[in-house]
Design brief:
This protein is an alpha+beta fold. It is built from 2 helices and 6 strands; from the N terminus they run βββαβαββ.
Length: 120
């Protein structure tokens, strides 16, 4: 089992912005995804991305109350996380066949904890 932990405030994936027929995400959305990628590279080192079906468990710890509108939808957090792991931990997020995701409040230590294992 792989454990990837990112010690930063998790951010849900924002909506794509379009200006002059150019699509982009806001910088704050890209920053969290980049943090996920860096943490994944540190865990994977020089290993090849996994090629098997995967089970993923995600724990999201934020400063806000989990049920508040300011907290974010759990599926949008997963989009950021899965995009950040793509091509590093696994070849494609289509390999994920099982997902468990939970949101928690932690005012002092916001973070994301990701556990990845082969699905059997």
């Amino acid at each position: 089992m792989l454990k990837i932990e990112v010690q930063t405030e998790p951010r849900p994936q924002g909506r794509v912005r379009v200006v002059n027929n150019h699509a982009y995400y806001r910088a704050v959305d890209s920053e969290f995804r980049d943090e996920i990628s860096w943490a994944a590279r540190a865990v994977m080192k020089d290993a090849e991305p996994l090629k098997c079906p995967l089970s993923v468990s995600v724990k999201i710890y934020r400063r806000f109350v989990p049920a508040s509108k300011r907290y974010g939808d759990v599926d949008n957090f997963l989009k950021s996380i899965f995009d950040g792991l793509n091509g590093i931990v696994y070849e494609d997020d289509a390999q994920i066949v099982r997902i468990v995701a939970e949101k928690f409040r932690d005012k002092k230590n916001p973070r994301a904890e990701i556990f990845i294992s082969e699905y059997e």
